[in-house]
Amino acid sequence: xxxxxxxxxxxxxxxxxxxxxxxxxxxxxxxxxxxxxxxxxxxxxxxxxxxxxxxxxxxxxxxxxxxxxxxxxxxxxxxxxx
Length: 82
Fold this sequence. Notes:
Oligomer: single chain
Strand order of the largest sheet: 1-2-3-4
Strand content: 15-25%
Number of helices: 3
Shape: globular
């Protein structure tokens, strides 16, 4: 899965879902695909998603639980002091 085949809107949807947990995450600015995941830049900082998570958001978003989202939100690194 390369940047060109990765559904950007699935990343944006994940960020929207995560913003309900942590509003400091912010809005999508861009992403870079690496072997071990996808680094997503937002207006608030950065967060790394697995390619599998993005695929799951694309294929079956209802299978991602709120508990999983809370764990994922903890991966967020803010660009500014809170």
